[in-house]
Design goal:
Order of helices and strands: HHHHHHHHH
Strand content: under 5%
Largest sheet: none
Shape: elongated
Distance between the termini: 47 Å
Length: about 200
């Protein structure tokens, strides 16, 4: 019975995570990695970084969060994943600067007061909203368009593979169908945006 009590629910609130982090609860820390690390890893690996560097940066961001919640009157004004993403992004920019990715002599730390985390948070929230709208648009799109676009843009299937999978006579027909699906998706997406 005690084992059942140790299992965390799949949905964990930001408050529960913060309380768990303050207690040093390893299950909560592990849950944080599952929930929040993938977006940070994606951002870093797509900006001259490795998976290992992403792990180091994320660990640092978690330490920044831990420091804030244990030593200051910390008030979270956004989603926890947005906060960790924004802090990770700033840490990564600093590392790139130290590594010499910026050709001038200006160090990013000179702008630390100007580069507000809130700006990053707002950008990330806007991006998150767009992803949610795109997901909703994809769900409204229906088949075979949804699968066709996912196969091409997410699974990186070639037009030849798509032609064979969907039974098109040639890759030109598949391209035409992909174009039509994309146009329908854009129309749904922008209709959703205007409803905001």
């Amino acid at each position: 019975m005690s084992k059942i009590k140790n299992i965390l629910p799949t949905e964990v609130s930001d408050e529960v995570i913060i309380e768990g982090l303050m207690r040093g609860d390893s299950r909560i820390i592990s849950k944080m990695y599952k929930l929040f690390f993938p977006s940070v890893a994606y951002m870093i690996t797509n900006n001259s970084g490795t998976q290992e560097e992403a792990r180091d940066i994320f660990q640092e961001a978690v330490m920044v969060l831990y420091d804030k919640i244990t030593h200051q009157n910390f008030e979270l004004n956004c989603k926890l994943n947005t906060f960790l993403y924004a802090v990770s992004r700033r840490l990564w920019l600093k590392q790139l600067s130290r590594r010499g990715h910026t050709s001038n002599t200006t160090d990013i730390s000179d702008f630390e007061d100007i580069l507000k985390v809130e700006d990053d948070i707002q950008q990330h929230q806007e991006l998150e909203n767009k992803f949610e709208q795109m997901e909703e648009a994809m769900n409204q799109l229906g088949e075979p368009c949804k699968t066709l676009l996912q196969d091409f843009y997410i699974c990186n299937l070639s037009m030849q593979d798509i032609t064979e999978k969907f039974g098109y006579t040639n890759s030109d027909n598949a391209k035409t169908q992909k174009y039509k699906c994309l146009q329908r998706l854009k129309k749904i997406f922008f209709t959703l945006k205007t409803k905001e």
